[in-house]
């Protein structure tokens, strides 16, 4: 290996590492770059130590890595910075990458639920099949159980209860996706429950009340369930078809993405619980309550398709740059090994 040529080729990366290690505040992308450069320079130092007798070069790189190590370890200890980066990069990027899966789940769910609701509303045989009584005034009448469910408990306690229940249901859908059929069963159960209530309310001529109580919180809440179902099923499909990667590697990668979604959905479901606990049972006009629900949904979709898309593109760009850098480094090393030089270390 021609150490002089190697050092000259890597000088820019080492200077960049020194610059980042000396900055007081780093952006998220700069922090990722710092970690990548630190790891790469550590490998380069190990390579030089086995080939180069130049103590000045070894000492200089060792000092640089010591300085960079302090920043790397310090950035890992900054919990709030990591939390912020999770919600600005990791979580939205993972949602964006999985969107075809959960959008497909949403489409199938809506079609199945709507079809079942129409059938239940207009067919006695459907009610017989699902064991639904013909006397449902206790549920559908004004002031019935469907409406009082949202107001019979204190708002804060009800919001906490809803948050816990939704988190449990979402986690079940998410992590049973690896087996596929259990997740499909849970999603169908949710679609059937929605269809039964909607069909009975439609038969009683009270669809306005049904949508007035469901849409303020249910739009975002069901989206969270769709996301969990889509990401869970993607994990299960990865086990069947790992693509070009090994099955173990592909499942491990998708498992990390699934865990990321599980953590992020806790915050989304907290918003759903607050909407269901304080907005849905409130005395605000129904159009206002529905509008609040639609705004929450629009913000979530914007978060996925704008913030998430940008974060995913940034990740792809960094990965491409890293691969390009590694390839150039390997090609250069091969050239140095085959190029005559006055200083070769063997």
TrEMBL record:
Keyword Membrane listed: yes
Keyword Glycoprotein included in the entry's annotation: no
Signal sequence coordinates: none
Short name of one Pfam family: SpoIIM
Superkingdom in the source lineage: Bacteria
Keyword entries, A-Z: Membrane, Transmembrane, Transmembrane helix
Transmembrane segments: 99-121, 167-188, 210-236, 257-278, 290-308
Protein name listed in UniProt: Stage II sporulation protein M
Protein species of origin: Nocardia vinacea
